[in-house]
């Protein structure tokens, strides 16, 4: 973990071809800064679903369009949301249809 600053974000070297570099902010829990081999720089918020224990991610925006301080504010807002809502936002940001709700617990076979 690293305390992210604008100077650090500007100076992150590009990773090798086909790779992605991710820096985790020590000051703001869940905030990550990603750099692709093509030079794309973006902020994301990482969370863990308590049911599946899988790590999910919501893209917050691209750098420098979204400043570090605004990314931290967005991450603070998302931290208070339920994992279900975060998963819906993750699929919405990718323009995908969210997974169907799990109704298996209420389903009963016909008798």
Brief overview:
By secondary structure, this protein is of the alpha+beta class. It has helices spanning 6-11, 68-79, 83-93, and strands spanning 20-24, 31-36, 41-48, 55-62.
CATH topology: Double Stranded RNA Binding Domain
Give me the CATH architecture, please.
2-Layer Sandwich
Q: How many β-strand stretches?
A: 4
Could you estimate the helical fraction of the residues in percent? 25-40%
Q: Unreliable runs, pLDDT <50, ≥5 residues?
A: 103-109
Shape: globular
What would you report as the Rg, rounded to the nearest angstrom?
Answer: 17 Å
* Beta-strand share of residues: 15-25%
Largest sheet: 4 strands, antiparallel
- Sequence of secondary-structure elements: HEEEEHH
* Overall SS class: alpha+beta
The count of domains is 1
Strand order of the largest sheet: 1-2-3-4
What would CATH call the class? Alpha Beta
* CATH homologous superfamily placement: Integrase, DNA-binding domain
Quaternary state, please?
A: single chain
| Termini Cα gap | 56 Å
Written description of the protein model:
The chain has 111 residues and is of the alpha+beta class. The protein has helices at 6-11, 68-79, 83-93, and strands at 20-24, 31-36, 41-48, 55-62. It has one domain: Double Stranded RNA Binding Domain, CATH 3.30.160. 26% of the residues lie in helices and 24% in strands. Strand 2 and strand 3 (41-48) form a beta hairpin. The N and C termini lie far apart (56 Å).
């Amino acid at each position: 973990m690293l305390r992210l600053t604008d100077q650090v974000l500007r100076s992150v070297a590009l990773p090798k071809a086909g790779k992605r570099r991710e820096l985790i902010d020590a000051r703001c829990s869940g905030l990550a800064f990603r750099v692709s081999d093509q030079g794309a720089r973006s902020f994301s918020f990482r969370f863990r679903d308590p049911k599946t224990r899988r790590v999910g991610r919501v893209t917050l925006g691209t750098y420098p369009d979204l400043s570090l301080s605004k990314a931290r504010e967005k991450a603070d807002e998302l931290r208070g949301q339920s994992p279900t809502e975060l998963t819906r936002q993750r699929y919405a940001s990718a323009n995908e249809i969210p997974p169907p709700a799990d109704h298996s617990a209420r389903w009963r076979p016909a008798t």
